[in-house]
Amino acid sequence: MEGAGLATTVNRLGAPFPAANSGLRWRRVNLRAGDWRPKSPMGDAWKPGSVRAQKSDSEEKSSPVFGDSLANSVEVSQWESGYSYNDIAARQGITIRRRPLTGPPHHYVGPFEFRLENEGNTPRNILEKIVWNKDVEVKQLKQKKPLVALKNFIDYAPPTRDFIGALRQSYTRTNMPALIAEVKKASPSRGVLREDFDPVRIAKAYEAGGAACLSVLTDEKFFQGSFENLEAIRNAGVQCPLLCKEFIIDAWQLYYARVKGADAVLLIAAVLPDLDIKYMTQICKILGLAALVEVHNERELDRVLGISGVELIGINNRNLETFEVDISITKKLLEGERGEIIRQRDIIMVGESGLFTPQDIASVQEAGVRAVLVGESLVKQDDPTKGITELFGKDISA
Ligand SMILES: O=C(O)c1ccccc1NCC(=O)[C@H](O)[C@H](O)COP(=O)(O)O
Questions:
Q1: Known catalytic residue at 231
Q2: Where residue 158 falls among pLDDT bands split at 50, 70, 90?
Q3: Which of 75, 247, 278, 283 has its CA 20 to 30 A from that of 293?
């Protein structure tokens, strides 16, 4: 990735340049109504005289009910620290950068348009690519449905169900990890998992097999999922609480998930800085959503354990940057002092990815998880209900 390469019209992501990582820093200034403020590197344009201009710092920090002002926590993080979003993330060991704002110089030769690609404006791995694409998607969706409008729809959304309660109940009932069964058509690492994909049929089969909760992929571009699938499953009368499996980068998405019938959302520590996780967890509580905070290594787990109010943590055995899967990661992270803290706080741990056999389930249970999130090994089965019994080595439906 060193140096600049030349590529034709590669603005598929609309990837702008230079960026938050271009050395541009945001400094704290005292604004008065009418002051001009440039567009922040990650967020919407500052509106003079908007609610933030009228609230004190302490009110803002402690009050997620100011949904509109806190909805873009990227802006808040930058605002409070004086550092760019990517600076803040990098200090916390996060390697996933946010999409830079403006594109590199375009060069026209005859009918062709060229663009310089370099390390700053090209995603470095699949997770970064997904996040950059999500940034564009969310910006467009937000224009169509601004937060103020979205909030009104919450009154018409079905009530949330107790996601964490369902996991606890199932664990107590079966004495085995509660199952979060994933409705996933495709993934970047495995391609299409099931051609004859009927999300409602699969969801009902999972429920019949004893799943405590379901995870529904909503990302379209990389997983061939959709919010329509989530809504359809909810409207089909499936009782299992639903996790909206989405790449959340903006608090607006929490409201959107709630409106579309989700009971829980995923917050990925490899993508979100601590302050985002903190605010988003608080917003989730207000919305009645459970937050599954996902980690992959010790540093991420330590960060998440440092954030108060986290009740549900997933250990993803899959490295989302390299696709490598290793289920011993769950054990490694739950050993020693970390495991002790988790037990003391009664946090529910979820073992995620790469679970195919009863031995796999036993190994993560032994490590200390009380729930598992399983996609591929179940979704590929002709009969997913039977697949659950085979995966657990016994019928967990009764
Ligand atoms: O699965 C991928 O290829 C992937 C790539 C980039 C980001 C996320 C990705 N997957 C999300 C998941 O981790 C899984 O869907 C989930 O944990 C279930 O895993 P599995 O049982 O192995 O299907």
A1: no
A2: very high
A3: 75
